[in-house]
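hiii so um. not sure if this is the right channel but i have a protein structure encoded as tokens and i wanna go backwards to a sequence. like what aa goes where. can anyone help
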């Protein structure tokens, strides 16, 4: 039975969608027939958190995924050594990176290539060139690359020059909704929600500025979650005099976010560049309408089940918000379309297609 060595150095509790991907994928892989065995190579942060979702032994690497120096050394060298000691038949890097010289076939999940395509939007510009180099070297050593959208696949072909027949496009899925969500709660007609860390590519400034362009007698409430530390949006909200309407929250507990999803009028995602949109599918999965920046990847995920606005344009977002807030029939239509759209994606499909990618990598040797 082939042993898959899984690099979990980036699972630290702060990496958002990449961690959701690893957790949901390996939870489902553990439910598959015993074709493979799995060993996880965990960061020190993950070892202190619940990792019962992983379907096999979890090894403490002793490496912090939050310390960029030790993390980079671990990605490039330690993973390979530990995989060799474990007798790995295959190495999987679910979070973008792989070792320089893998001792077994390597599959890397590349979620996006934003450091190549949108370096101006990256928060940690000092690390742009090192990260690009690591991504290039990982791809050069890989047997196959998994990616999460056709948009990201085109970026892989463009920037990494990777063979098309070794790229597996496997779209993500939203987490299964809790059947108790929404029980006893009513969806508001004047509460819009935006979520995520305050990285430049999330473009929350456009959302706040859009609120200033909505007349006060029509202006709904806006909640933006996901800040770590001092929120850089506070000065902008004050400057525009929006304190009565805009509430800025830090990273909220799951229970509170679940309640916001269940009671909001719609979710807004203003992201300028990304490889997918998990929040879109998760909102659609519980009937929450979505308003998305009109980008190629959001059209790929949302199709006709979302309303769109011109990316980076506060006036057009204000138009979209006013239009949806005043049209209950459109809200109901987006709820229906969103439920239908989200049903087309599942983690079971992600798991099945990932196993097929593993098989192809092993066949290639």
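sure thing!! here u go:
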């Amino acid at each position: 039975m082939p042993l898959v060595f899984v690099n979990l150095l980036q699972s630290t509790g702060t990496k958002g969608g990449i961690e959701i991907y690893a957790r949901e994928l390996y939870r489902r892989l553990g439910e598959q027939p015993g074709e493979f065995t799995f060993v996880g190579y965990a960061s020190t942060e993950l070892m202190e958190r619940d990792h019962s979702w992983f379907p096999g032994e979890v090894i403490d690497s002793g490496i912090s995924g939050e310390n960029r120096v030790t993390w980079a050394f671990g990605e490039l060298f330690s993973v390979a050594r530990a995989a060799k000691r474990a007798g790995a038949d295959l190495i999987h890097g679910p979070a973008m990176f792989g070792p320089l010289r893998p001792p077994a076939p390597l599959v890397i999940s590349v979620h996006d290539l934003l450091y190549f395509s949108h370096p101006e939007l990256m928060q940690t510009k000092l690390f742009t060139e090192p990260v690009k180099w690591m991504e290039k070297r990982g791809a050069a050593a890989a047997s196959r690359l998994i990616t999460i959208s056709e948009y990201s696949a085109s970026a892989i072909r463009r920037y990494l020059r990777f063979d098309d027949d070794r790229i597996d496009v496997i779209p993500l899925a939203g987490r299964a909704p809790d059947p108790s969500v929404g029980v006893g709660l009513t969806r508001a007609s004047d509460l819009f929600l935006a979520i995520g860390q305050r990285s430049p590519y999330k473009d929350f400034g456009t959302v706040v500025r859009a609120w200033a362009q909505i007349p006060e007698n029509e202006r709904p409430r806006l909640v933006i979650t996901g800040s770590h530390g001092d929120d850089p949006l506070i000065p902008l909200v004050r400057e525009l005099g929006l304190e009565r309407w805009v509430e800025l929250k830090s990273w909220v507990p799951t229970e509170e976010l679940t309640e916001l999803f269940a009671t909001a009028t719609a979710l807004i995602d203003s992201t300028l560049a990304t490889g997918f949109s998990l929040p879109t599918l998760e909102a659609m999965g519980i009937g929450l309408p979505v308003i998305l920046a009109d980008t190629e990847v959001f059209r790929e995920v949302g199709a006709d089940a979302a309303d769109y606005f011109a990316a980076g344009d506060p006036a057009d977002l204000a138009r979209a918000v006013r239009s949806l807030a005043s049209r209950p029939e459109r809200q109901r239509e987006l709820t229906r379309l969103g439920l239908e759209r989200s049903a087309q994606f599942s983690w079971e499909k992600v798991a099945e297609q990932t196993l097929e990618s593993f098989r192809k990598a092993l066949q290639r040797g």
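oh and The radius of gyration is 21 Å.
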